[in-house]
Amino acid sequence: MEARNGGVWRMVMVLCVAASAVGVSCSKFDELVQPSWATDHIIYEGELLKLKLDNSSGAGFASKSKYLYGKVTAELKLVEGDSAGTVTAFYV
């Protein structure tokens, strides 16, 4: 029984070393997404993507790849005291 546990322990160690050897690559945000409409309303700032909303249009973008899972957040800043009638939509 003791030898069997030692073999399992070695297997776990080998898997941990192999997993840590896998490199992580970084990409620019504009390499991962593509504008879907109103490209003049999209502003790239490094890791930040801004979608401009005005009285005539908004903007949209989509991922270039499909993913099994992920995290998406959105922050909306409306005009103070004058945001009545503003309609926002956030689809996932």
From TrEMBL:
Domain of life where this protein originates: Eukaryota
GO biological process, one term: carbohydrate metabolic process
Alphabetical keyword list: Glycosidase, Hydrolase, Signal
Keyword Signal: yes
InterPro entries: Beta-glucanase-like (IPR000757), Beta-glucanase/XTH (IPR044791), ConA-like_dom_sf (IPR013320)
An example Gene Ontology molecular-function term: hydrolase activity, hydrolyzing O-glycosyl compounds
Signal peptide feature range: 1-26
Residues in GH16 domain copies: 32-92
Gene3D superfamilies: 2.60.120.200
UniProt xrefs under Pfam families: Glyco_hydro_16
Protein name (record): GH16 domain-containing protein
